[in-house]
Amino acid sequence: MTYVTKRFYKKKGENVKITYYYLARSERINGVSRPKILRSLGTIEDIEKIYSSYSIDNFPDPTTCTILEFGSIAALYDIAQRLNIEGIIDKYAIKRDQGPTIGNYILLAAINRAVAPVSKKSFYGWFKDTILISLYNKCNEKNLSSSNFWHQMVALSPEIIEKIEDEITETVINTYNIPTNSLSFDNTNFITYISTANNALIPQRGHSKEKRTDLKIVGLSLMVSTEHNIPLFHQIYPGNKNDATQFSDLIDKIKLRYHKLNPNDDNITLVFDKGNNSAKNIQHLESTNILNMHFIGGLKFAQCKELLNIDSNQFLPLKGDEFKETTVFRTTKELYGNNYTVLVTYNPALKDAQLAGIKSNIYKCINKFEVLKLKLQNRTDGIIKKGVKPTGESVLKNIKSILTQEHMSTIFDYDISSIGDDKITISYSLNNDKFEILKNQKLGKTILFTNRHEWDNEQIVSAYRSQFHVEEAFKQLKNTKYLSFRPIRHFTDKTIIVHGFYCVLSYLLVSLLKLELHNLGMNLSINNILDMLSKAKQVINIFENETDSSVKVKPVFSKQHKFAKIYIEKYELKKYGLQGDKIFQNFDFLE
């Protein structure tokens, strides 16, 4: 226990007692409690003098202050330093020893995409309001300009990016012990606002996941670990390339990536959805070229129609609380020239969710049908006279557009009638019989197939459900606040490929941050993590002396969320903050 004690002394030659105070701590010595003096506090007058000197009235008010982004930036920067991300990039992307390195540029771009995505024109404005200003003293407004940034990227060819990603992936797996025996793969695409006249090969019109057939799109293939959702492979590809063809072109690259990481191990299971299936792809996966891969994939209902009518009594419940009421029917079936284990799963919760979506789409279709009927009637009645006269072909095109949502074209019946040259009418109805068949045969069901014949039902279903990891990655990359892949403000194939590289690198760093927080017992979403850490700021109080025009600064850190505080202290992130008077002398916020 620490406490204050006092002792009395007499001045030499005087009969006056003076009281001195000490900070002491009780200690037991040979079983006896004795005081140990820690510090002399002096007389009561000394204590009063010291106390009064700390009065707020004795401190000058700061002339101004500036607030720098600290928490999330320091966390991502620290992870990158521990992995030597910049060093790995600079090992392959070599430039003249002048100004920032390619590794500097790419890491800064990746951190920016994670925490506050801005255009390269606004990049320096963001940079100078962060702690990065003290970590990159070679960076200035000129060399962080948009034109200079892209001028430096000539060193990053697709082949160089692939070598960099190979080494980064190996470093991540070895550093964090990421299991790679099960991996998830999928494709997505991102809309762009690149003009039709642009002759770049990557942005093309294709099957947009966001239903924007009017815009050019850019494709992204991604492979992630099924544990912790760590991205381990990516490729940018043309938007008009379908999923199965893209998967076919990447199988050897995926095998090579895994073989480099695990040269003596072929115990890998790749998980993918039904959009990547083709006979060629499945045969290619199982070929002994480079690596014979195990896989778990999804099947389209049309490939297994007979399995949709299996009686529910033949379905068995899955064991484990995570499966809740899910049941499964297991069989073998010949597909793509080989026999595979096939599972039909039925999930009541999935059926309820699908049914809610279908009912919502039914109401939307009915409303659109009524609008179309009214327009056609108004044209017949002469109320609408302007515009292009409808034809049977144009009305059919409108109806097909109304029924584009999944299952709508199956459960709606319609008819187009012409009366003479001037009148076109439509009728429509919801086919209840077809709707019942849909509900009873398809909703809530998923069909899987695999060459993991030795795995039990729970292992197969659990592995396939891990596919949500790559879907979650795509969802995050389409987030508008953090880690946003778009808008893609680039108009050449080369700049789009580089943009994709640092966006995926950004997602990698944030995924590792999430993993580190998980290891500390904090399970948070990526958005919650970045929200929490972004509130940790460094405040620079600036004191200007009017007498001699000198400037002093006093940096302090803002209060932090308890989880952020734990992480910041664990990894000693405050070392990246601005420190000392001298380092501020030439910074923009002092101007």
Describe this structure in words.
The chain is of the alpha+beta class and 591 residues long. Among the domains are: 2-58, no CATH class; 350-441, no CATH class. Helices cover 39% and strands 22% of the residues. The protein is built from 19 helices and 17 strands. The chain has helices at 44-53, 71-83, 85-92, 102-115, 123-127, 132-135, 146-152, 158-176, 243-261, 279-286, 348-380, 392-402, 408-411, 432-441, 457-465, 468-477, 493-519, 526-534, 562-570, and strands at residues 2-10, 17-29, 32-42, 64-69, 182-191, 217-225, 231-238, 269-272, 294-298, 316-317, 327-335, 338-346, 412-419, 423-430, 445-450, 537-544, 551-557. The strands form four sheets. Strands 7-6-5-8-9-15-12-11-10 form a nine-stranded mixed beta sheet, with helices on both faces. Helix 10 (279-286) links the parallel strand 8 (269-272) and strand 9. It is elongated. The mean pLDDT is 87.
Any descriptors?
591 residues; alpha+beta
Short description:
With 591 residues, the chain is α+β, with helices and mostly antiparallel strands. It has helices at 44-53, 71-83, 85-92, 102-115, 123-127, 132-135, 146-152, 158-176, 243-261, 279-286, 348-380, 392-402, 408-411, 432-441, 457-465, 468-477, 493-519, 526-534, 562-570, and strands at residues 2-10, 17-29, 32-42, 64-69, 182-191, 217-225, 231-238, 269-272, 294-298, 316-317, 327-335, 338-346, 412-419, 423-430, 445-450, 537-544, 551-557. Among the domains are: 2-58, no CATH class; 350-441, no CATH class.
